[in-house]
Amino acid sequence: MKLGTKGRYAVMALVDLANSPVDQPKTLAEIAENQSISLSYLEQLFAKMRRRGVVKSVRGPGGGYVLAKTANKTRLSDIILAVDEPIKTTRCSPDTGRGCQPDGSKCATHELWDALRQHILGFLAQVSLEDVVEGRAGQIVQMRRLDGNQAA
Predict the structure, then answer these.
(1) Full-model pTM
(2) How far apart are CA 96 and CA 53, in angstroms?
(3) 72 lies in a domain?
(4) Is residue 152 part of a domain?
(5) Shortest CA distance to 57 belongs to which of 65, 49, 46?
(6) Domain coverage including residue 90
């Protein structure tokens, strides 16, 4: 399974942003310094997130970035998908209809790994940025199980 730096860094940066006062824009330079992430890399990520409506830019003195929605309405899946970070659990290329075998068929474990990918995406869709900021992200699945719900 692979989740690259784009998704991880985007979530880290938005947690930093969510920890700021709601109406106070934060500069990418501040976020880069706080999170030890390259400023040029953050610029690329925030451009993608702005286009996808995850963040809004504020121009002028005191400008920077703010969340487009409140932290409790911003899902981790929105962030990860905004930066074009696929959740890859199989060797196959998703959406091609071809498997990873030389003849184009799917391997014997394809359905297992694809179900895991769906589970991960479902989990990320249930966790809000606020859950991460408040330290509740690890409890989400446990709470769903206690309620008798599945997190998928």
Answers:
(1) 0.81
(2) 27
(3) yes
(4) no
(5) 65
(6) 5-146
